[in-house]
Amino acid sequence: MSSERNLRVGVIGLGAGRGHVLRYKDHPRADVVAVADANAALLDERAEVLGVALRYTDPLEMLRKEKLDIVSVATPNKFHYPLTLAALEAGCHVLCEKPIALNASEGRQMVAAAKRAQKRLMVNFSFRFTDQSWALKQQVEAGVLGDVYFGRTVWHRRRGLPKFGGWFGQKELSGGGALIDLGVHRLDLALWLMGHPRPVYAMAGTYNHIAAQKVRRENELFDVEDLAAGTVRFDNGALLVVEASWAANRSRSRNT
């Protein structure tokens, strides 16, 4: 029998964080001992269902008091940066929801902080861990595809605009729309499969023509794009096309 102790886990944010709690509970060496959410009503409701007794509306208080080994940061994107830094400073490994932060500068600082603290920082790019992705990666590494010099990665929802008035549609909180929500998953997966060539330049555009019509009808705050498309050129000559949309008006959603 192993003498290793179970790891103490805390989860910040019980929107997406609800799924984090459930998955940690599936792991034999993880004990979710505390959760935090600024919404007190949501915190009590979901913590009760999830069976977590220690609850905090202030995540920094949770980090000070609970001596955690691992923390999931599953908040609106704006708070990924400060809460990840705080968790690393508290001596925790961190699993941060995607995207890592609002911009590249914050992301680089988070990676540097993890190296200084000698802790792991992982971003929740979950598509890398599907059976299909692993099977395709094995085929790429076995040379079945040969030289990968062109890729196209797409996530088009038929009509899946996030709830108007919520944080997903507010650039101050989210940092962006369909690209930073859906597109980052597809970009990460494509780069992983292509062997992470070094990007030389990128050209892209964002649009919100469909969302803008809904904004006018419903008079809600929504200032991010519903469509993003771009091309990335790499130093090995390869080219990658990326497309992400919340409202492509297709006959069905497409995720490739």
Computed structural class: alpha/beta
Query: Low-confidence runs (pLDDT<50, min 5 residues)?
Result: none
Mind summarizing the main beta sheet? 6 strands, parallel
| Sequence of strands across the biggest β-sheet | 3-2-1-4-5-6
Q: Supply the CATH superfamily name of the largest domain.
A: Dihydrodipicolinate Reductase, domain 2
Count of discrete alpha- or pi-helical segments spanning 4 or more residues: 9
CATH architectural label of the largest domain: 2-Layer Sandwich
Tell me the series of helices and strands, N- to C-terminal: EHEHEHEHEHEHEHHEHEEE
Question: Can you tell me the CATH topology of the largest domain?
Answer: Dihydrodipicolinate Reductase, domain 2
Number of strands: 11
**Number of domains as seen in the coordinates:** 2
C-alpha Rg (nearest Å): 20 Å
Written description of the protein model:
The strands form two sheets. The protein has a six-stranded parallel sheet with strand order 3-2-1-4-5-6, sandwiched between helices. Strands 8-9-10-7-11 form a five-stranded mixed sheet, covered by helices on one side. Helix 4 runs parallel beside helix 5 (104-117) and helix 6 runs parallel beside helix 8 (178-194). It has two domains: 7-124, NAD(P)-binding Rossmann-like Domain (Rossmann fold, 3-Layer(aba) Sandwich); 136-255, Dihydrodipicolinate Reductase, domain 2 (2-Layer Sandwich). The mean pLDDT is 94. The termini are far apart. The chain has helices at 17-26, 40-50, 59-66, 80-89, 104-117, 131-141, 171-174, 178-194, 209-218, and strands spanning 7-12, 30-36, 54-56, 70-73, 93-96, 121-123, 150-156, 199-207, 227-234, 239-245, 254-255. It contains nine helices and eleven strands. With 256 residues, the chain is α/β, with parallel strands linked by helices.
